[in-house]
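retry 2 of 3: previous attempt timed out while embedding zinc ion. Reduced batch size to 1 and resubmitted. Inputs unchanged:
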Amino acid sequence: MRDTLAALINLQDVDCELRALEQSKGDLPQRIASLNREIAQLEESIAEKHDQLKTSRLGRESGALEVASLRDKLKKYQNQLYQVKTNKEYDAITLEIETTQSAIENREFEMLEMEEREKQLHSEIEGLQPGLAELQGQRDEAESRLQAMLAVTRAKEERLQQQRQEIVARIPRPVYSTYERTRIGRGGIAVAFLKEGSCSQCSTRIPPQRGLEIRMMNHLFLCEVCGRIMLYDPERMTVCEGHQQ
Ligand SMILES: [Zn+2]
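retry 2 succeeded.
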């Protein structure tokens, strides 16, 4: 059991280093994800405006064709006006001319409104572009910082994982299960040292008799308060020493 408990100390040290590596990435991964969400929203809003522009342009094109055909019609009515023989015919054609003229005016007015709206859309798109470029710049910068960090830490992480496997192979399965369950449930720290008669992690006083037993390192004891595996090493007082916590 003594060897097993000593292996647990080594395992915890490796896990502390792995945890510090993970923490060194900081909030970069989350930051990149949130920048990507903002970028997607802006891009969607710009794409919507481009769609509106396209619809408006098509509307103006068909409006222009309609106006051209209305003008042809108008010309025909105006020519007919010189050939009329009765007042009734004259009135009828005059009415047609007026109706056609007002249809042309309406169409032209609609087209002007569309043109105005297009100008507005253009300026809205232009207004959004700098913000988008800014976000993309921030995202690319965070991404390359993360990649650089990963390039440095990858080799170290692989070495630590290798060490970890070697240590785990020396620990009986049930003890390792207890270790893992505690590590995951207790913020990455599965072990505690007996430190001046107390648990180094939660400071609970350990009864002197139990303290003696822990010092022997012959049995696996758990702290009754924080549940961590109690170990003793006169050289060690803290877990994850020198690592970010
Ligand atoms: Zn404790």
